[in-house]
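User: For documentation purposes, I need each entry recorded in a consistent format: the amino acid sequence on its own, followed directly by the corresponding structure tokens. There are two entries in this batch. Please keep commentary to a minimum and don't merge the entries.

Assistant: Recorded as requested. Entry 1:
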Amino acid sequence: MLAELVPLAFSKIMQTKNYTVVIVGNEEKKFAIYVEPHVGKVLQMYLMEEERKRPLTHDLVNTTLAGFGIHLKQVVITDLQDTIYHAKLFYEQQVGSITHMVEVDARPSDALTLALINGVPIYATQEVITQSVPAED
């Protein structure tokens, strides 16, 4: 059975000394994903399209995969267990006339950052939307 996917967008990032809150959602509902402060700063750099003095880990992963013709197609926040979100990256590689699709488990913060770098859509399953606690924006 295929899960219904709901499109998401970034709404806000709030930094504190101890954590970062990333608010994502749509017009109907927004929810918060909590990440470590340094992860939030990196995500914010990509959101603000700041120039980086040297490649970061996300740049390395992205460039390496692109070198093999592997392209990120979408990111999906797939599950919520207690207060921990889970995500998947969906990659595509064309080899001759064959298209390979690969699903990779990822932390939501990494998935969101790679989505920003590649300009690909971000989704959540309807189940995640239903289970998530609404966040004010």
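Entry 2:
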Amino acid sequence: MSGHSKWAKIKRQKGANDARKGAVFTKLAREIQVSAREGGPDPDANARLRLAIQKARAEEMPAENIKRAIDRASGAAAEQLEEITYEGYGPGGTAILVQAMTDNRNRTVSEIRAAFNRGGGSLGESGCVAWIFESRGVIVVPVEKAPAEDIALFAIDAGAEDVKEEAGFVEITTEPSAFEGVRSALAAKNLTIDHAEVSMLPKTTVELDDERSEQAIRLVDRLDALDDVQHVYSNVELGEAVPLKVGAS
């Protein structure tokens, strides 16, 4: 998918403008806790936990918070969280995938349905849009320490599936199994990694006019702001001006 760096840019802008650190830390702690519960507390032997810790550190989450989340995975006070994926439609019939962690299904589905309705979308049935998305590693590297061509070659040599230059960034996609190897290889070249995650990318995207694009971004943001929601994915293809307009609003 083209445009992942634009979505990441919007999240960075909103993170800088909104007082959301506490909410972000809560979501990161939940991901760390579930990752440790499912795969064990050793990040060297648990790739999902290792990635969750990397993301937490990138958000400047204190080390004691990370340790507390890992310890909580096996403690008596551990939250009984389950992972659920919801699917729906945004403005213009765009596809939206919502990944949540919850201890109360009824509360979560009610909040997600309300967010869709208020944002001009609708919650759909299971399977209605999941087929549009596929799991891929995404690494976004700014073109500052090396030319885009060199970054692309480094990534391809390390096992990247696709490379695209976009607005001062190189956007690299990988198979999920190759993600950590490519990320580590780029880090070993002392390149700045602006964003790195295993994501759900759309196989096809939909272009909207500016007004509907802004509505779609606000719907994604409304869903992402819910406490139980961990990730929100959309197949909206963003125009160049839209991220700056919405991020500044």
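Summary note for entry 2:
The longest helix spans residues 21-39.
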